[in-house]
Amino acid sequence: MNMQKIEVREGNFNLQDYQKAYQQFDWEEAKQAFSWSETGKVNIAYEAIDRHAENPDKADQTALLFTSPDREERITFTDLKQSSNQFANVLKDKGIEKGDRVFLFMPRSPEFYAAFFGILKVGAIAGPLFEAFMEQAVRDRLEDSEATMLVTTPELLERVPYKELPQLKQIVLVGDADVQEEGFIHFHNEMTQASQSFDLEWVDLEDGMLLHYTSGSTGKPKGVYHVHNAMLQHYQTSKWVLDLQQDDVYWCTADPGWVTGTSYGIFGPWLNGVTNVIVGGRFSPENWYKALQDYGVTVWYSAPTAFRKLMSAGEEAVEPFDISKLRHIASVGEPLNPEVIAWGLDAFKLRIHDTWWMTETGAQLICNYPAMEMKPGSMGKPFPGIVASIIDNEGNELPPNQMGNLAIKSPWPSMMRAIWNRPEKFESYFLNGWYISGDSAYYDEEGYFWFQGRLDDVINTSGERVGPFEVESKLIEHAAVAEAGVIGKPDPERGEIIKAFITLNEGYEESEELLEDIRQFVKKGLSAHAAPRELEVKDKIPKTRSGKIMRRLLKSWELGLPTGDVSTLEE
Ligand code: WT7
């Protein structure tokens, strides 16, 4: 593949001499962009929204360009300041205070962003939940976070077991609903009565602002806790990696239920004061190309799964559209295949820049920059101010070209500050001052990092992170299922698909209907993306003598690989 076809280009960040930039940059520099470096008053909502609304050059600029099948709206920084002030007043009126957890469970809409920033403005902690979650997934997160308020829609309310969540005192309904029960609040009624002015709650840089739940290989989803200080990195990476410039029209395709959708679907663009496109509704190549064309998107941040779907729709899908305004494309979430980069060069005449990071890291850490030579298949190089390395299991750094744990020197501005209510889980991420990512990788002599795989059993399906334990737990709740072991099976389009091995309880016979029923059970209980695409009935699930499911062995069987060390296998 001839990558030199597309020239490297200088943007905000002239990285021709990466080493120099890497050695000179200091996070102190990033602080200069924020008013709190002078006033000492901090709130990420102020820096992302109000600051621009107070600037005559920016006040009437479109902040949010929202489109969904039934709605299209342009919302200025002033509008967004006012609507979030209104919601902050509603929250204050309902007794919400600094540090309280207020969750959001609703599709993307202008109301979502007003509510989100209203929550931050009172100093509360926002917990956005992916709209496709079903009852169990919603319950686990509300229970663990002890959220006292939820903002949702009448349609999604049926998946919220609020009667069984005693700490959840109030539910704000966005949309028409005739609910007279105590604790229910009508968003639109309250908003029309609320003032558009609000005295923002100034907080500390280390105060909490966001909880994102994510999965590991064991246990229930964990609440990854982020603080206002993350804005330093949201801002600086969006500037240098996404190359955001004042007149850009930027589109991040991720839902705010996932960290990409908050760090780069909300904070990154607005901290940089650019117009942010939000596309609701379902994915289709036509809808996406049309959005790129109609809004004149200049910078686009998406995921390999989406690029692969567009790729398989063929060049004829993109041809009818004029997407010539597009200047820069970046990708995150899974390995970005060199074939996809090659396709991007043909389809868009642009490079797709891979970026690597995680829910826990809060922002991009290892990236390809507009002005850097790319090696297709590599995640790129550490962001200035970030020290990345490969370490062995004892915490020693390894030389180039040796595979090991991808690790980051702790801390950095956007790093999680806690796992909610689970200090021991938080501690388990760190070794010798390094944050251990759980990914295996190596770096080459030129300092490019190359992703190899996960070191744990976490599954990455279509860029979404799924914990096998959650799926196994749900599977064995089904009357027919005795035991379950769940793995990620490689898939050309989705990266991995979820495959479950199960044993059946006595009295149940394997049949197509039964397997479909089990699949639906997981889908309706957890969410569609967590439902196994493949189910295989076994006589036994391999376990260690201490009763742990040996997913690694299941995976070796599935892939026809050598089974390795099985000395801990039970009789
Ligand atoms: C895991 C984190 C924060 C972004 C969205 C995913 C995988 C992420 C890449 C990449 C290969 C990647 C890793 C990581 N991953 N980016 N560029 N190349 N793998 O966040 O849900 O917390 O998942 O996604 O395995 O550990 P997440």
Automatic annotation (TrEMBL):
<dbReference type="GO" id="GO:0003987">
    <property type="term" value="F:acetate-CoA ligase activity"/>
</dbReference>
<keyword id="KW-0547">Nucleotide-binding</keyword>
<dbReference type="InterPro" id="IPR025110">
    <property type="entry name" value="AMP-bd_C"/>
</dbReference>
<feature type="domain" description="AMP-binding enzyme C-terminal">
    <location>
        <begin position="470"/>
        <end position="548"/>
    </location>
</feature>
<dbReference type="Pfam" id="PF00501">
    <property type="entry name" value="AMP-binding"/>
</dbReference>
<keyword id="KW-0067">ATP-binding</keyword>
<keyword id="KW-0007">Acetylation</keyword>
<keyword id="KW-0436">Ligase</keyword>
<dbReference type="InterPro" id="IPR020845">
    <property type="entry name" value="AMP-binding_CS"/>
</dbReference>
<dbReference type="InterPro" id="IPR045851">
    <property type="entry name" value="AMP-bd_C_sf"/>
</dbReference>
<dbReference type="InterPro" id="IPR000873">
    <property type="entry name" value="AMP-dep_synth/lig_dom"/>
</dbReference>
<dbReference type="Pfam" id="PF13193">
    <property type="entry name" value="AMP-binding_C"/>
</dbReference>
<feature type="domain" description="AMP-dependent synthetase/ligase">
    <location>
        <begin position="58"/>
        <end position="420"/>
    </location>
</feature>
<dbReference type="InterPro" id="IPR042099">
    <property type="entry name" value="ANL_N_sf"/>
</dbReference>
<protein>
    <recommendedName>
        <fullName>acetate--CoA ligase</fullName>
        <ecNumber>6.2.1.1</ecNumber>
    </recommendedName>
</protein>
